[in-house]
Amino acid sequence: KTMNENIAKTVSKFLSLVLRHSPEKIGLKLDENGWADVDELILKCSKKGQKLDAVLLDYVVENNDKKRFAYNEDKTKIRASQGHSISVELNLAETEPLEYLYHGTVGKFMDNIQKEGLKKMSRQHVHLSKDKETATKVGSRRGVPQILTVRSGAMHRDGFKFYLSENNVWLTDEVPAKYIEFKS
Ligand code: HQG
Predict the structure, then answer these.
(1) In 3D, which of 18, 73, 65, 72 has the Cα closest to residue 43?
(2) Is the pTM of this model over 0.70?
(3) Cβ(123) to ligand 1 under 6 A?
(4) Which is nearest to 40 in space by CA: 26, 50, 60?
(5) Is the distance from the beta carbon of residue 66 to the nearest atom of ligand 1 less than 6 Å?
(6) Cα–Cα dist 102/180, whole Å
């Protein structure tokens, strides 16, 4: 990996922390829609040891592997496109899902998921992927991946709502166990 990519990854992790979970760590305020002021973010990151300027921030927003962050139209504000644990209103449009979506997890959670379905846990939504490859990557973060197939079309017909984040992660409030196929 090039030096640039390593720096960009470090910055991405730091931004995930402050824009999704703990803005107070650097004394940053997010508005109710999760937006931070760009100049304030740059200043407060730099003060707290994460060197950052407008060029580097642009680079991270543009080249981030999952497009985790997005600017507003005039680039005065920035937010995480999904993955928050703090409560923010992203105002995502409800979107009709594909017939099947996928969730990557690990074996130790399977008993619980079979009993109570997929829950948001510490985040604002359950995260689902449009293909098994992506779900496999998500599951691999925690160990040997187990891929669950979610009958999202049936859920939608039964009244469950789905949202598509700006970076193409499917989000929903919960997935009851009866909509999950445990053999993939
Ligand atoms: C599991 C990454 C027990 C769930 C990825 C998961 C994703 C349960 C863990 C995004 C459960 C929660 C989110 C239940 C769910 N009992 N365990 N009832 N229901 N679980 O990190 O989906 O790189 O909050 O299977 O790409 O792993 O951060 O969710 O293993 O999009 O941008 O509880 O994070 O994106 O873990 O990952 P997480 P996730 P970023």
Answers:
(1) 18
(2) yes
(3) yes
(4) 26
(5) yes
(6) 9
Mark 100-131 as b/e (b = at least 16 C-beta within 10 Å).
bbbbbbeeebeeebeeebbeeeebbbbbbbbe
pLDDT of residue 4: 83
Tell me the C-alpha distance between 169 and 92, whole Å.
Answer: 11
Tens digits of residue pLDDT in 137-151:
999 999 999 999 999
Measured from the Cβ of residue 155, the count of other Cβ atoms closer than 10 Å reads 20
Beta bridge partners of 128: 170
Instruction: Give the C-alpha separation, 151 to 181, whole Å.
Output: 8
Tokens of 28: 């940053």
Contact 53, 42 (CB under 8 A): yes
Q: Does any ligand 1 atom lie closer than 6 A to the CB of residue 9? A: no
